[in-house]
Amino acid sequence: MDEMTDETWSFIKSAIVIFVALLIIIWSYMSFASPYLHVWQQSKLGEAELARADSNRQIATCEALAKKESAKALADAEVIRAEGVAKANKIIGESLTGNEGYLRYLWIQGLQTSQMQIVYVPTEANLPILESSRLRSSTSN
């Protein structure tokens, strides 16, 4: 082997010292700083999870409020529609009161436009006259 020069030997010593220093730094970090860093990291994870849960709660609250407002608006619309139907029924009922002739006219018009339909006419006792005459005529043949 060639003899090492002082400069090469000095370089190797420096590299060994730097390597040993790095090993000591890594060992001290693993022994002393790592537990504290782990505690800090867990604390930050907990804070992030708490912030996420708070955000999710706010989102759920906003969605529930939107559903509540929507339900109220739909209920108001249904009330307004029902009031309109009630007014229309009242107007129709009032216009038909005392107009027996007009109602009879509409009934006759309806009979003329219906084809091959059976009409049950109520009697004085509000019992319909059944198709007994038609049945008798078909059985007597």
Keywords:
141 residues; 81% helix
Sum this structure up briefly.
By secondary structure, the chain is mainly α. It contains 3 helices and no strands. The chain is 81% helix and 0% strand.
Task: Characterize the structure shown.
It contains three helices and no strands. The chain has 141 residues and is mostly helical.
Record the SSE blueprint:
Layout: H1 6-96, H2 100-113, H3 132-140
Largest sheet: none
Radius of gyration: 48 Å
Please provide the count of β strands: 0
H/I helix tally: 3
Number of domains: 1
